[in-house]
Amino acid sequence: MSTSATRTSDTNNPPASATVTVIGLGPMGRAMAGAYLDAGYRVTVWNRTASRADDLVARGAVRAATVEEALRANEAVVLSLTDYAAMYAILGPAVSALKGRVLVNLSSDTPEKTREGAAWAAKHGARHLTGGVQTPPSGIGTTESSTYYSGPRDLFEEYEGLLKVLTDTDYRGEDPGLAALYYQLQMDLFWTALTAWLHMAAVADANGIGLSEIKPYATETLTGMGQFLDFYTPRIEAGDHGGDVDRISMAVASLDHVVHTTRDSGVDPALPAAVLETFRRAAGEGYQDDSLTRLFEVFGRRP
Ligand code: NDP
């Protein structure tokens, strides 16, 4: 994250009565509570490990003695927890204080878990917005980062000012699972792409090529991916998997070279071998002369 990023506290003037409770003070929750303090909000905090609130309290946050006290302090309650199970563990014993609260749940989980969480909150009289934060803690409190939101549109619009203190917002729709779905889609790409880079770097390193030396080449390949997406997306949408520019059989041969290069370098080949296996499966299903985009359908048929 660029250090020249615009802080949201420079761009948003808080309403006179701006108050918020933040429950969950891991790296994310601490950054969020800090952003609200910077923006002039009156912030109440609670965390299972109470000492994690010390720095925030020194900066002016109010430490709630109990979860119930934290909930009753403010209408808007931001949750930043490991997952939704943590929400039940924390709020379950204090459900009587949930009535009338607005839970902005910025904890990651599956779309299904977030839908269940929204229904659980409604059962106890609370309204629920799901959030999928797309930045590490360093991006909290800046306008350059963004968070997916889903849930009731009127609730999102009512609280957008509060949400924009943290990051920019990207409302995805009424279904509470949508923000989590968009988040998980991005994570799918993020984890596989980043792992591929680490694997490539390990092979380079095993051959005496340092990470800094390989970095410009890795960056060029990753940056160029956008052009592949531009080219292939309309073809996939049109159901066109013609092998006029690339073929599955070519990918099998190429990946076989990658796997052998990896093995010869003394590096674990499991990652490219799994990709090779997927292409071999497509070839085995008779698609050897089709474009690699045929995988879009082959993946979708996996039980
Ligand atoms: P952490 O897992 O480090 O912190 C989570 C918080 O959850 C802590 O306050 C922890 O309490 C609390 N917690 C977990 N389990 C329980 C439980 N059973 N009972 C009570 N409290 C519990 O997460 P982060 O702060 O890094 O992230 C928060 C969320 O944001 C996660 O869902 C993460 O996936 C997501 N996220 C994180 C990013 C990052 O870069 N860190 C980036 C984008 C999203 P305690 O302090 O007592 O352990």
Task: Describe what is shown at a glance.
With 303 residues, the protein is α/β, with parallel strands linked by helices. It is 51% helix and 13% strand.
Strand content: 5-15%
Order of helices and strands: HEHEHEHEHEHEEHHEHHHHH
Mean pLDDT: 95
| Largest sheet features | 8 strands, mixed
Tell me the number of structural domains. 2
- CATH homologous superfamily name of the largest domain? NAD(P)-binding Rossmann-like Domain
Shape, please? elongated
Strand order of the largest sheet: 3-2-1-4-5-6-7-8
Radius of gyration, Cα only, in angstroms?
24 Å
Bound molecules: NADPH dihydro-nicotinamide-adenine-dinucleotide phosphate
CATH class of the largest domain: Alpha Beta
What is the architecture of the largest domain at the second tier of CATH?
3-Layer(aba) Sandwich
* Fold-level CATH name of the largest domain: Rossmann fold
Structure characterization notes:
It is a single chain. Helix 9 packs across helix 10 and helix 11 (248-264) packs antiparallel against helix 12. The model has no long low-confidence stretch (mean pLDDT 95). The chain has helices at residues 8-11, 27-38, 54-58, 67-73, 84-91, 111-123, 153-158, 160-163, 178-206, 211-237, 248-264, 270-287, 295-300, and strands spanning 19-23, 42-46, 62-63, 76-79, 102-105, 127-133, 146-150, 168-173. It has 303 residues and is of the alpha/beta class. An eight-stranded mixed β-sheet has the order 3-2-1-4-5-6-7-8, sandwiched between helices. Strand 4, helix 5 and strand 5 (102-105) form a beta-alpha-beta unit. NADPH dihydro-nicotinamide-adenine-dinucleotide phosphate binds at residues 24-29, 47-49, 52, 80-82, 86, 89-90, 107-108, 133, 136-137.
